[in-house]
Amino acid sequence: MKQIALILLAAVSVPPVVAAEKIPAFPNLQSESFLAQSHADHQRLWIVVHMPKSTNPSWVGDDMAASFGDIAVRALHKQGYEGPLGTLKPESPTPVRAPVLEIHLQKWSAKNGLSDCEFTASIRTEDGDKDLGYFVGDNMVVTASGEEHFSSDGLEGSALEAVDDLYNRIRATGLLH
After folding, report:
1. What angle, rounded to 10 degrees, do the helices at 152-173 and 58-79 form?
2. Over the stretch 103-126, which tens digit does the pLDDT of each residue have?
3. Quick check: 46 and 87 in contact, CB under 8 A?
4. CA distance 37 to 101
């Protein structure tokens, strides 16, 4: 029995020298791929969505923030923003020189076929910080028979309307090149 265990152990063991060669102890901070990624992170517009503190349970707020961030990315690209975009959680660190769009979601809800989206936004770039103001979007979802109803399309529609206005305001600031 001991011989079988030793044979199995020898068959699945990886020599330490091979393992050390495959996984470097420290990344090469001067490598082209690391520098390219670092440069790309500084060129990327990072979007951070903050939820109201009253959002309960907190995981609902995390899911809503992520969904809103995804919608904002799509809307900004649709409106013509050509640079790279990314989303971050509020507690995540941002690259030092990267532009950051902070969205403070005040309301994003639907009732009786009408969805509302309200938020404030600000942007931080190397050229300075700018309060972009207050944004509102609403959307009514009506069926073919004329009845109002709720759908996720309604929530997305209200968010898209507000983010479209946000994009126009961002362009007007001249802070993004």
Report:
1. 60
2. 999 998 887 778 889 999 999 988
3. yes
4. 20
Is residue 76 exposed (0-12), middle (13-18) or buried (19+ Cβ within 10 Å)?
A: buried
Distance from C-alpha of 124 to C-alpha of 126, rounded to nearest angstrom: 7
* Domains of the chain and CATH, by start: 41-173 (3.40.50)
pTM above 0.90, yes or no: no
Q: What angle do CA 47, 73, 65 make, to 5 degrees?
A: 55
Q: Rounded to an integer, what is the distance from CA 84 to the centroid of its chain?
A: 12
